[in-house]
Known about the structure:
The chain has helices at 2-13, 16-19; strands spanning 23-27, 40-44, 49-57, 60-68, 73-75, 89-93, 98-102, 114-118, 123-126, 140-143, 149-152, 164-167, 172-173, 188-192, 197-201, 212-215, 220-222, 236-240, 245-253, 256-264, 269-272, 285-289, 294-298, 301-302, 305-306, 310-314.
Amino acid sequence: MKRFLYSLILTLLIPAAARAATNWTQLFPTASPPVRSYCAMTYDPASKMVVLFGGFGSSGYLNDTWTFDGITWTQVETATAPGPRTNAQMAYDRRTRKVVLFGGYDGTRDLGDTWLWDGRTSAWTQATPAHSPKAVTGPMVFTDLNGRVDEFGGFSGNLYEDTMWQWDGSDWRQPHVAQLPYARSSAAVGVDSRGKQIVLYGGLADVNPLNTWTYDGTTWTMESPANLPLTVYGASGVFDQNVDAVIVFGGGDGGVDQNTTWTWTGTNWEQLITAQSPGPREGAGIAFDDALGRTIIFGGQNREVPKSDTWELSP
Length: 315
């Protein structure tokens, strides 16, 4: 109820002309997670809240769980949880109504364990699949067009991977895909459910990752846009319903962190000009909060200094 009232108040108080201009606005929740970068973050429709896990902060590798209700962040104490890690990723499985977390790095090794977050009970459960992607840091984990969670790529300690896996609710399997993006980790991914395509951009790789790929559920296609975002790795990607496009924010470009926002038109990248913006950063958590109707960004790092600020992109 309070989320509905919050959205209603914003709608009534902000003039129509102001709402027409998309802008980043910093939020000041009464409580926030400590500073961190490269956390795993997604929207959980089961609890109607954004959920955040782990990352790397001033106290090292983290394994705390937080939820955001549009007003404040709340730490969730759980009986069990994934081990501390950074650069894991997670996405919501619409079939099982659980969030699937995979991969990451704990300071010693790349990780290949799979964990499930149930927002209805606020509990983590470790899955025991018979098959699994390689242990990797910086995998791309996203909800595919059929509602399943897919995993692509990541860095396995020696190689950038180019394999793709799909979570079927109890096990990982490799789908038959005619073409895959070049091997990489830490790329930005957005799921355009309206345009029926997954959009992947950038990342870290041995082969040039400065390219854009789209996935229609059958094959990946490398696009040829006239414009490209500056960012190369650690950018944050999500589909924003208000902009009606996949957006990519921030990321590291040649070791310099950025704070530009780009939108994918379906054939090209266009920079979204806003009156204000979060500061430069890479490794920020991002999610589109369906209940709030806003894209939410948290944390990240600039010049390897982690952050703890919360921003929303509002129409």
